[in-house]
Amino acid sequence: MPASAHGTAQFRAASDNSSLIYFDQHISLAAHQQVAKLLRLLALQPVSGIINLHPSYCSVLVKFDALKLSHDELETRLRPYLDRVEEIGLPEPRAREIPVCYGGEYGPDLEEVSEAHSLSVEQVIDLHVSATYIVYFLGFVPGFAYLGGLPEAMMTPRLATPRRIVPPGSVGIAGQQSGIYPFATPGGWRLIGRTPLAMFRPDRNDMSVLSIGDRVHFVPISPERFAVFENA
Amino acid sequence: MKTIQVQAPGLFTTVQDLGREGFGPLGVSASGAADPISLRLGNRLVGNPDNAAGLEMTLLGGAFLFPDGGILALSGSDFGATLDHIPVEPCMSFIARPGQTLRLGPTRSGARSYLCVQGGIAVKPFLDSASTHTLSGLGGFEGRALRKGDVLTIGGVSLPHRRRMVTPHILSRLSPRKILRCTPGPQSEWFSESSRHLFYNSTYRVAEESNRMGLRLEGPSIPVSSGGHMITEGVSLGAIQVPGGGSPIILFVEQQTTGGYPKIANVISADLPSVGQLRPRDEIRFERITFEVARALLQEQEQLLASPELIQE
Fold first, then answer.
1. A123 and A182 inside one domain
2. Where is the domain boundary, B105, B138, B166?
3. Contact check, Cβ <8 Å, A13/B291
4. How many CB pairs under 8 A join A and B?
5. Would you call B257 and A200 a contact, using CB atoms and an 8 Å cutoff?
6. B31 contacts chain A (CB < 8 A)
7. Is B24 in a helix, a strand, or coil?
8. Exposed/middle/buried for A9, CB within 10 Å: 0-12, 13-18, 19+?
9. Residue B138 shares a structural domain with residue B15
10. ipTM of the predicted structure?
11. Which residues of B fall within a CB distance of 8 Å from A185?
12. Measured between beta carbons, which residues in chain A are less than 8 angstroms from residue B294?
């Protein structure tokens, strides 16, 4: 299997028309910044033959036109880009506030999460609200933001059996990850609350409320405020 | 403006073109026709560009009234089509006169049939594509499968009809396969030699709960070795992931862009259209090939599609 090292970045063939570029083997802020910088560099100076990019925590899947490029040719073309990645500046992170109604029908797993950690529901909410989260990447479905920065005291494994449908806007946690479901999709993360914001708006230029690199705070709201937001 | 009136939608009929590449950073996967070869053939029969939007029907076709007529072609699987009760040949263009109704029934072969109309199906593009992504309700016709009473608009091209057909001996070389050729997945070495042997030497059955997002497979369960610690990463079309339970899943056109399960293998690009023709309960096998052979097979397939003899008039 074609796999080779280049500095810290490793290439690995994923399919006959895609390669994964790994910046690290575990989740780190440094690897995240390399992912964000590579995306930015490729957006500014596209490489002919690359047709799509699927970013993640510490890797980017690069899909290419297999009639034009091979895995080795892709690596040859991207090597100079990776050499320059460190020079790329990232925009100042945007601060984003996400209103969340916690518990009850909005967060059906909140009580279980609090019991698992011998905390009160209020303590779990305080923990979740106190942290600053970083949008590591958008993935899974349109506009789904993978958030890093969940307080260790509330980290909880995902559900043994995923839900067939998670209501849109649900705020979930799984291990050290947190995220917001933009659409009604299946999902195995524990749901602790729900935002009334539409997280993905196809009719807007800025379709996704959250972008890679954003700093996120959650703001608790009441069910009454939730209803007001939702109807706004 | 010419229209199509949906009298019966069929089981699951969506507007699809060749998909929207380039929006992975937003979490948006490509979507597009499950069997892109058939969509391309259908479009060529009616004189459209390859990427024009057509209707993708699944297992059971619908009934479509053409109040203003149209130049049509059906491609992919044979759904026993009739035009005002007269049988219509697949992979051959034909004219619907104003007021005629095209009716399709249950499939007689694979999972999907495509209806292409000269001018294409006109919908508001989402991120440069007409494809429907049903899970997120984006693209296509109102982001969803068609319903009875929907009225679709046909794009504004009108050329004289020239009866065209796909040359049978080329069509047969493009026909769907049940032995899917694969290259190794990015975590293939996490699986033991005996797990890989099991995967490549077993017959798997396509489960009922399969769709455009993924095909779940029933058969011998693959033990996942603890070859490494999996971190969510970008996943490719046709990736075969093995969750903890050991039942493989083929990620398909409406795939998630990222996932956290190890991938043992990946269906080659040339065989992805065959995946789009798999029905629930179909039995399939996997054959391991190299990246070089996969590339040669894709080139060969594209050469067939570029052949001047592909379409006969």
1. yes
2. B166
3. yes
4. 147
5. no
6. no
7. helix
8. buried
9. yes
10. 0.96
11. 135-136
12. 16, 66
